[in-house]
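Need residues for this backbone.
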């Protein structure tokens, strides 16, 4: 078990993790090094109001895969806060809960560039920015200048504290992994072996 109470700088890696993949794990690792975090809490979402419901596995299964993915890694932890909460997932509520649980820690919310560009449309972005530093990584080849422009805009309009990370372009997404499963193609090296085995045993993403 990770001793999160002693962490001064906590990373939060939120996602639907449907399924979790190597891009998520490398991003968490990268953020830890870039920002000097003590560790990262993976936070699978509950029922997201923004995602296509048909392809979405239940929270319990996405949580199970996340646990398998981080197994044995001391500085990675996994929380069932959002999955247990049920209903829509609001990031600001999660950040408020975590700040109450770990009052001395500084929270760093880790996102890929797609989320940096959409976060203003999330519920109560002002409250999100109040509770954390955003650690935003490049994704899908979006130029750093675009990220920098967005960073400045969010800082100006919302007082957001944002650190940008140049992240290697990994063309990995859960969408692509689900497509591969559907087409009977391999997902080896895209997800940890334990996750791949769990997906195969349970015939996930086959008949969508
Ligand atoms: P989906 O295709 O279902 O949307 P996804 O691969 O985007 O899945 P999410 O669970 O939506 O995964 O993403 C969780 C977080 O991880 C988001 O902040 C997202 O930007 C980031 N992320 C996921 N994959 C990558 C990647 N290859 N490079 C950088 N960031 C990534
Ligand atoms: Mg996504």
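Answer:
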């Amino acid at each position: 078990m990770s001793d999160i109470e002693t962490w001064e700088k906590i990373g939060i890696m939120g996602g639907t993790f449907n399924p979790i993949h190597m891009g998520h794990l490398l991003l968490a690792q990268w953020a830890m090094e870039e920002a000097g975090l003590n560790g990262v809490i993976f936070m699978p979402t509950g029922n997201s109001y923004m995602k296509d419901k048909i392809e979405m596995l239940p929270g319990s299964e996405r949580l199970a895969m996340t646990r398998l993915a981080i197994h044995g890694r001391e500085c990675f932890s996994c929380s069932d806060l959002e999955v247990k909460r049920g209903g829509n997932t609001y990031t600001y509520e999660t950040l408020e809960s975590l700040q109450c649980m770990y009052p001395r820690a500084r929270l760093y919310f880790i996102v890929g560039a797609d989320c940096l560009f959409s976060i203003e449309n999330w519920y109560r972005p002002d409250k999100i920015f109040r509770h954390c530093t955003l650690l935003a990584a490049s994704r899908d080849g979006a130029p750093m200048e675009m990220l920098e422009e967005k960073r400045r805009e969010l800082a100006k309009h919302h007082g957001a504290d944002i650190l940008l990370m140049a992240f290697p372009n990994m063309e990995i997404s859960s969408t692509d992994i689900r497509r591969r499963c559907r087409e009977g193609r391999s997902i080896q090296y895209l997800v940890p072996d334990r996750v791949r085995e769990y997906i195969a045993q349970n015939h996930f993403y086959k008949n969508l």
